[in-house]
Specification:
The complex is a heterodimer of chains A (208) and B (646).
Chain A: H1 21-51, H2 63-66, H3 69-94, H4 98-128, H5 137-166, H6 177-207
Chain B: H1 10-19, H2 23-52, H3 62-96, H4 105-124, H5 140-143, H6 150-178, H7 191-222, H8 237-270, H9 277-290, H10 306-318, H11 320-334, H12 343-366, H13 368-374, H14 378-408, H15 414-440, H16 457-485, H17 526-532, E1 548-550, H18 556-572, H19 578-582, H20 590-613, E2 619-621, H21 623-639
Classes of the chains: A mainly alpha (208), B mainly alpha (646).
Protein name (chain B): Cytochrome ubiquinol oxidase subunit I
Domain Cytochrome oxidase subunit I profile (chain B): 9-522
Keywords (chain B): Electron transport, Heme, Iron, Membrane, Metal-binding, Respiratory chain, Transmembrane, Transmembrane helix, Transport
Chain lengths: 208, 646
Amino acid sequence: MDINQKFTPQTWPKHPEQATLEGKNKLVGLWIFLASDTVLFASVFATYIALKDSGPAGMEFAARDLYELPLAFIMTMLLLTSSLTSVYAMYHMKNYNYSGVRTWMGITVLLGLGFLCLEIYEFYHYVHIGFGYTQSAFSSAFFTLVGMHGLHVVIGLVWITGLIIRNSSRGLNLYNAPKFFAASLYWHFIDVVWVFIFTVVYLMGVLG
Amino acid sequence: MSSVTQKKGFGAHVWDYLTTVDHKKIAIMYLAAGTLFFAIAGFEALLMRIQLMFPESTFISAGLFNELLTMHGTTMLFLAATPIIFAFMNAIVPLQIGARDVAFPFLNSLGFWLFFIGAVFLHLSFFLGGAPDAGWTSYASLSLYSPGHGIDFYILGLQISGAGTLISGINFIVTIITMRAPGMTFMRMPLFTWTTLVSSSLILFAFPPLTGGLFLMLVDRMFGANFFDHTMGGNTIIWEHLFWIFGHPEVYILVLPAFGLFSEIIPVFARKRLFGYSSMVFATILIGFLGFMVWAHHMFTVGLGATANAIFAVATMAIAVPTGMKVFNWILTIWGGSIKVTVPMLYALGFIPSFVAGGVTGVMQATAPLDYQLHDSYFIVAHFHYVIVGGIVTALFGSAHFYWPIMFNRALNPKLGVLTFWIFFIGFHLTFFVQHFLGLMGMPRRVFTYMGGQGWDLFNFISSIGAIMMGIGVIILVIDVLLSIKSEPVNRRDYWGDGRSLEWAIETPLPFYNFKQTPLVRGFDPYWIEKEEGNKEGMVYAEPLGEIHMPNNSILPFIMSIGTMIAAFGALYSPWGDQVQAGTATGAPAVVSLALIIGGLGLTIACMIIRSFKDDLGFHVTVAEIESIEADLANYRATGKKGGNK
């Protein structure tokens, strides 16, 4: 693979992320990693469900009173939109339009940052009212599950930002196209996990 | 790129192994590290057996006994069996599918170093205030209240080495999916490649629950979380579920590759095609699938209820069906074959009855009511050692003899091999057969001593004698390995003369790029097909001789692993730890602990960023270089002289 090979939108392959063996390996590997990450989240989800609302005798916090749906809704919309913008970035990648990739990936990062700020605010709020990490089994399970998703968001943000910085001046080639695609795939995964967190933690918390 | 036969100094050799991404060298490192930990864990077992040789013995104390039994189990499963299996996977699978290397050579190296650093970290516990002592299962109800840092070493060491195992597992799956040579369809893959694929998929789904469980335990013990502390609303059974959702598939992660290795050995020495290939593949997949459906049979006595116990009992018994298919296929492969009883074949012949015995006692324990009697008795110890020693260790010893010519271009001595086999095999049955009866007589497992006059004395004595014999067998094997260094090089392909799959079609010593040209696979047992057609070249090729693209070496995996170890020390000495606050363990000031965690992880992340920002495109070996390397190797095979191409 020649990294300096120049393309035009006409000569650019239809699936640039799979045009090289390295790219194909990367994507198969990432899909497989996501499968195992799903199991990791499943374990923590199961733990959360088992420990929901349980704490020391006389605990005053219950999921029903704790969560606020409007905040969770705004966070959900931010993350879902960021998934959409990363799809736009991939659309531009397939059309060999680097500035489009950069712009939409940048917007994805901004939306992700917005999500992260709201999550930090939420955590800060809970700790402030006394629902800290060591307060009960419920609090440990909540912060571990949602915090683990938050950590995935941070990794995704660092990853995409790094890609934008590294490739800011050299444009698209068959070496970095799979990297952008992989980061976008990972970002979708984060989004899917959040859909489950929104359902299992927030909706079921407020309803049940 | 210089020739492979170039002379190098000692420092250069060390640097070469620290940075290598070559699957053949990583295999050798896995083998060496696995053997080291196998020896340590075996020594621990010997100490325990000497203690139990006579009633009311005072050879070692109760506390030390708990540490030994914990470290023996943990080390054997995570740090001995797994890496030695990875050694064979690394050495053989890329050759069997005709690939130049694995899909992610960098990750291959990272997987090894994480495993090794995690293992070293776990063993540092012996020198830093006591080893873990809650058994290899480390049930939360026991381990949360274990004083000192022992359990912390267990958690962090397994967390690091588990990450390495997961990375290696992903690597093998991708390698087998994308890197197969032309014509190597899935249903033409050798059984060892198939079992590697299925076993790696089990790693993929089994290790995350362990990672999750270990993380919960980590924050519980070191940072004041409350997952397993019932006074704070926690539930200790969660650990048992998470552990066994990992722990049961772990058994299949180890035994499936062992099945695969025997499925390679038996057809070669029966000189017959493997009987029922497609049913073997089907059985492998089925065992892998059912392996996830049975974890609660380890928890029959926890009190999950009759319905849960019944479901898990039936699922467990179902696993006997595909396993039985495999046993019959091996027997029918041998049946009517022109059998050569070499050392690997001897291990295969010993394996079949031993493993069946272990399997049958497994089905006995699957009967939930009977398990209430057998639970936590020596019967269990006998069962799982029959499966693990009779199934996995025999596979590893047999394959060491089988694949030594490919891995090292030397052969192990067959006379010493036969001697090792008989001493080890007889010792193994002496050790564990009588333990069935000890269990039925009511001797509980994990006890450090027992009273005389209960009818246990003789069987315990026999068991200890057997263990010493196994130790002698292993020592002879090690001597055999050391002697092989000075023995005549093999210098040819197909050492056993009846090789069937691709790894035998390549002349040893191997060049670093494996096959000069990618081979063309024309059917199942491709090398056998070529031999039958009288092809003297070894294989037919799928491409003309051309430039070969190979990956660059890197020191980053080693530094990344060191980073995780630094962070692990930070977490270990966390001042917020339960035991630190209870005064049974030493803690560091918060600043030091946090600095170590952030600094260590920072080092790892910095390496990842460097890796991401520096393009690593690998290098190309030109046709002229390939020809010169091949000429060099041919010269070496003919004259025994190295060099010539500096």
